[in-house]
Amino acid sequence: MAKIRITQIKSIIDRSERQKRTIQALGLRKINHTIEVEATPSVIGMVRKVSHLVAIEQV
After folding, report:
1. pLDDT at 25 > cutoff 90
2. Which residues form the Large ribosomal subunit protein uL30-like ferredoxin-like fold domain (predicted)?
């Protein structure tokens, strides 16, 4: 399965609790923190919910 690189580019301050928990579930901690994960349907769904807060790249 393909991997994707997710980078948090915006703050979660003043965001809904659901968006904050989605960012935490992805494993992101602060702005400019980057993770590499498998592109599973569940991860892609989480990224779509917070797409305005993260940047995504194919690895």
Report:
1. yes
2. 4-54
Please list, residue by residue across 5-20, b when 16 or more beta carbons sit within 10 angstroms of its beta carbon and e when fewer do: ebebeeebeebeeeee
Distance CA 27, CA 29 (A): 6
Look at the domain 3-58 and name its fold.
Ribosomal Protein L30; Chain: A, (3.30.1390)
Q: Name every residue whose Cβ is closer than 8 Å to that of residue 22 and which is 6 or more positions away in sequence.
A: 46, 49, 50
Q: Alpha carbon of 48 to those of 25, 41, 42, 53, 56: distances in Å?
A: 13, 11, 10, 10, 10
